[in-house]
Amino acid sequence: MAENWAARLPKVKSKADLVYDTLHQAIAGGDLRPGDRINMDELSRNLGVSKIPIREAVKRLESEGLVVAQMHAGVVVATIDKKEMRGVFLAREAIESLVARLVAERVDDEVLARLDAVQAEMRTALDGGSVDLLPQLNSDFHRVLSEASGYRILTELTEQLLLTIRRYRVIAPRDDQNWRSVVEEHDAIIEALRQHDPEAAASAAAAHTTSQAGHEMTVGG
Asked: Where do runs of H (alpha helix) occur along 107-197?
């Protein structure tokens, strides 16, 4: 069938996709911080592309709320305020509780092993003072969970919410003790999953989100 044939076509990234990926990773990783200006000329030179794919990528990022065009300032990375973050955590609590409940009903040894592996990496990073690795590892933990739910939309929503939180944390003071709390809260989620207890898993996920919301609202920008 035609649709099956089309699905097998190789997916080749366009120049606009490559620019988008570059900027998206820079924003997610904190190399481009809220309020930073994106120098289109410099980007064009560094990536070896014209301004057309750059404009296309920027429009896509703007539609996702990651950048904004400002009068006399050009394109800058969007800022995030506390009011917006409250909404992010309300959405995160609802989605992550649902994810944990679904995963508890179907979790297998492979998923548990992947979660345990991420937890081990987070502990190693904490003990070794490599706190800069923790945001990505935290995202990895929640990505494993959301993918295990079996619903792509839940994975996509989780990714979007975690990206917003990672961007917000860039402007917050470093807090090693809170990262230890994150690891402990993850442990509680894993234990509930190991027991195949949907209610306990949902409760542990909600408690994790509530704890982190309280922390972010206290120390964030």
From this structure: 109-127, 134-148, 152-170, 176-194
